[in-house]
Structures are given as C-alpha cells and as structure tokens.
Amino acid sequence: MPRIKRILLLLVVLVVCVGFDQVTKSIAQRTLSGMPAQTLAAGLVRLEYTENPGAFLSLGAKLSDDARFWIFTVMVAALLIGLLVFVFRMSPNTPFLIILAIALVVGGGLSNLIDRLVNEGRVVDFMQLGIGPLRTGVFNVADVAIMGGLAVMLVVVFRDGKTAK
Fold this sequence. Notes:
alpha+beta; four-stranded antiparallel beta sheet; globular
C-alpha cells in the first residue's frame, strides 16, 4: 500500500476510534455515573460506569500511582509512537489488513491514553457482556478497537502462515 494511502487509512481509523470512544465515554459519564447497572437484551448487555486505574481487566490497578503512571501512560505512549513509526516504515507491499490492525490498536490505545491524561490516570469503562454468571470485564469502545486489531492481526498471520506452507 503506498505511503499516502497508509497515512490516510491511519488517520481515518484514528479519528473514528478516538472520536467514537470519547463520545461514548462522555455519554456514559453523563448518564451512567452514580446509577445502578442497566441491563439490556435480557441481561446479555450491561451498562455500568466504572473508572479503571489499571489496564485490561484492572490488571495493575493496585500498583502505586507512580508505577501506574510510568507503565500505563509513559510506556503506552512510547509503544504507540513506536507503532506509528513502524507503520510509516513498512514496505509498500504490506497487506492492507496488517495496517488496519495496527491502526485499530493505535486508535484504541490513543483514546485510552487520552483518558488517562485527562482523568487522573483512570480510563472510563461502561460495557459488559455475558450470559448469567459468565460475564466479561467492564470495557469501552477503545478496548474493542484494540482487541479487534489484535484479532485481525492474528487472523492474517495464521492465514498467511498456512498459505506459505
């Protein structure tokens, strides 16, 4: 994919991911904060406002404020910058799906990083899925983008690995 198309794809995905995530978090703050969990679709979806100081599934939430800042703000920012540099230095033959996957990870990571910077190190989470007692952790749109990007990357890697054999 030519460099200009790669940049445009990256910009579009970043704007959509960050924009949609920040808007949904703002709505969740206004409508769900201080309220009991709201269930939809016969309990399949639960909307519950939380502020997560940790990472995925609150990993690292009990670390000191300084440790969380260095790990979840500084190191994540460095990782996102590294991924952007990687995208710009990729071969023009890099498959579209690989670039899309990285853009989704960067978009979700950037939006959660924005949350940490403006929300005293916390990320707003508000969605949960499940059936009966089997439930996911509480997450947000940025988390979906990150997980979607990683899923696309795995599919491409396994698909290309099988065709190479």
